[in-house]
Specification:
Layout lengths: L3 E5 L6 H4 L4 H10 L1 H15 L3 E4 L6 H8 L2 H9 L4 E7 L13 H18 L3 E5 L16 H19 L4 E5 L9 H10 L5 E4 L2 H6 L4 H7 L8 E2 L1 E2 L13 H5 L3 E2 L8 H8 L7 E4 L7 H16 L4
Parallel strand pairs: 1-2, 1-10, 2-3, 3-4, 4-5, 5-6, 7-10
Antiparallel strand pairs: 8-9
Length: about 300
């Protein structure tokens, strides 16, 4: 079996790719001209040889697709005409109800079902979400990621996971840096508390490494529950406590790098991935690449070499 290659839509968010000077300018143009935005993204995907896409927060979100094409089926046809398809959609913190709010469960489930229905219509079957972010270290009152907290998160995940299965979609949790599903211990605890029939894992090799973890060990330990993985490299662990606010994602950027230029053990990761239910998709994640076509070609070459005889 030869896996399909995919990428996150964030790959195409760099202002240089659009000839613009800021991320805000990219969002504004995409909002004003959604068809032009998607046509350029799809053409670049086809040129790179990558055939799958993961949707995420604006400008490459579900709302943008609906503005551009009117519906999921029309989007699916546009992609298919270029040999492309939707793999998954990522639920960003800023774009969904807060899992920590005890009164938000109905809204959380309704939001997930809306996304799942869209995914099903595009032919995709994976909804990727993350757990809430940690608190800045040393802040008062302290916030602890303990068994009680994880039990609450597991309860929400069960409700969401059960709801999206009615649409033929799986819920997979992503291991985001500085979130409450970051350290190896976080992942092991959460997975132990959740039902494998309803809750899956989407490990990110870079983010696990940024937390000082071993991505390959995590992948091997949880292989039966990995529905999708983000293939991304890291320059090394984050050696300090970052400020957890709206700038945390920008603070993490310097620790991320293109595949093959960091510390991730790609042959080990590829071997572990080949034994998972998500083995048929290799999602290369490249946050805001100035030249996404070249970066995707490089990334897929590293992944292909690492996969070797795994399949």
């Amino acid at each position: 079996m030869t896996p399909r290659f995919a990428t996150d839509i964030i790959t195409f968010y760099h202002p240089d790719f659009w000839g613009l000077d800021s991320a805000d300018a990219v969002r504004d143009r995409a909002l004003a001209h959604p068809v032009t935005f998607w046509e350029r993204v799809m053409d670049a995907l086809a040129e790179s040889g990558v055939t799958g896409i993961e949707l995420t927060f604006a400008p490459g979100d579900i709302g943008s697709v609906l503005r551009a094409f009117g519906g999921a089926s029309a989007f699916r046809r546009e992609l298919a005409d270029r040999g492309l398809s939707v793999v998954s959609a990522f639920v960003a913190d800023s774009d969904a109800p807060d899992w920590r709010d005890d009164g938000s469960l109905p809204a959380i489930v309704a939001d997930a079902e809306r996304r799942a229905a869209f995914l099903a219509e595009t032919g995709a079957d994976l909804l990727v979400a993350g757990l809430p972010m940690r608190q800045t270290f040393g802040a008062r009152p302290p916030f602890f990621v303990d068994a009680d907290y994880m039990k609450r998160m597991a309860d929400v995940a069960h409700a969401v996971g059960e709801a999206v299965t009615r649409h033929g979609v799986k819920l997979a949790l992503h291991t985001e840096s500085n979130s409450t599903l970051w350290y190896e211990r976080d992942i092991d605890l959460f997975m132990a508390l959740t039902d494998p029939q309803y809750v899956w894992l989407c490990p990110d090799s870079c983010h696990i490494a940024l937390g000082g973890g071993d991505p390959v060990a995590v992948a091997r330990r949880h292989a039966p529950r990995i529905a999708l993985a983000h293939w991304k490299d890291a320059v090394g662990p984050i050696g300090t406590h970052l400020i957890i606010d709206e700038t945390v994602y920008a603070q993490q950027q310097p620790y991320m790098t293109e595949l093959g230029t960091g510390i991730v053990d790609w042959p080990g990761w590829a071997e572990a991935m080949s034994r998972t239910p998500g083995a048929d998709t290799v999602l290369i994640e490249l946050d805001e690449a100035p030249d996404p076509v070249a970066a995707l070609r490089t990334g897929t070459a590293v992944a292909r070499a690492s996969l070797g005889n795994c399949f």
